[in-house]
Request: fold
Amino acid sequence: MSTAAESVPPKGGFSFDLCRRNEMLVQKGLKQPSFLKTGTTIVGLIFQDGVILGADTRATEGPIVADKNCEKIHYMAPNIYCCGAGTAADTEAVTDMVSSQLKLHRYHTGRESRVVTALTLLKSHLFSYQGYVSAALVLGGVDVTGPHLHTIYPHGSTDTLPFATMGSGSLAAMAVFESKYREGLTRDEGVKLVAEAICSGIFNDLGSGSNVDICVITKGKKEYLRNYMLPNPRTYVSEKGYSFAKKTEVLLTKITPLRELVEVVEGGDAMEE
Amino acid sequence: MNLADSTPAMNSLLGSEADSQRTLYPYVTGTSVVGIKYKDGILLAADMGGSYGSTLRYKTVERLKPVGKHSIIGASGEISDFQEIMRYLDELILYDNMWDDGNSLGPKEVHNYLTRVMYNRRNKFNPLWNSLVLGGVKNGQKYLGTVNMIGVHYEDNHVATGFGNHLARPILRDEWHENLTFEEGVKLLEKCMRVLLYRDRSAVNKLQIAKITEAGVTISQPYSLKTFWDFSAFKNPTVGAEGSW
Reply:
């Protein structure tokens, strides 16, 4: 070998190479770029037949609301969903990545995915990045072993709980859960409690707001209730509507599709085994 | 250069001898206080814990005290500063009694006095490290207000300090209404204190509830709340996820 210090190929995980340089730049007065944070309220609870996940829909960039109706409940598998708080890019990327890994695993094993599989994939990825992937997740699903609910913290630790909250509005939502949760809730009671907890986050935390999303997962069935509740409607809408500038000539109002839809033939070529 | 001129000036303003005379950080602290207005007056609740950093050092600290004939005060934060505030208030009430004019200081006046004291101390960079709740009834008028160490003060139908702001106020905003009876009020306060007990690390399960009405002040004996730990997920948390917790 020519050099004493061999360059080891990177095996993934956080690379600390630039840390010292970044620290030096901050000391010299560089303002680090701010990231899109989902200052958030996300909750999950286990009821009689499965798991209910809930989330608000506000994405903040510092003091500004960047997206007033974003989706924080991410698809992992047909029977597993994951709510994400923290940096929006991180939660999206990490849930997408693990969702693909789970799909490949399903093809490989021929079985339904288990919640602990998703849990282990997520926690090992987050741990290897030492907390720099700022994703705090509430993972819930129903598999052959029963309903499960887990929280995953950015550094990679996990908790298994009957009810859980994460995000900046977690204390407001937890106050509702701690005072009202009991075992053996029915579906309607569970959905009502989750909606109450998210509303508590929406109205008492500045980082959360807009609408309530709910996802109910039971054995063999899932219901994704997007915008289940809209407690912040726009109260004033101008009756005038949109008025074009006086000189515009409106020629034609017709909507033409840009591309023809592809025809799918049923029972087409089967894939090779 | 400006830099060279200002440094010795700044040093004398916040110099080393001056440091030993200012409150820099709290040592023995009390956690949240929660207060609500109800039909006949005001209810305050506080636990009896005095933490020394992360140790629960003192477990019989009375953080709710009567002030004069018409008010009660609850304090969170540095306990020694609370004791100092009580000395100021005792002096205030004494001087008021010495007038012997048939009038006595009401809760609004005491709240205003405390606000001035707290704000002036903060302006001298020597704060009293407390968040206070002041409630009372005078001539049928109920009053409930709060002041904290930087002088922020307001009055409302329900107030909380410290962790209570995050955990108790959402519950109070949802469930408080005018004309709560005494039992309903106590139940509501206990609900808040129970959540604080579960989720605030510096809370102790030994609390007092203080009631003030036109008739006078009553501070209850210390008692503890019932807690529930029997969720099945707590009994066997890692079924299905061996190796985690």
Notes: Chain B touches chain A at residues 163, 166-171, 173-174, 191-192, 194-195, 198-199, 231-234, 237-241, 244-245 (CB under 8 Å). The two ends of chain B are 60 Å apart (CA to CA).
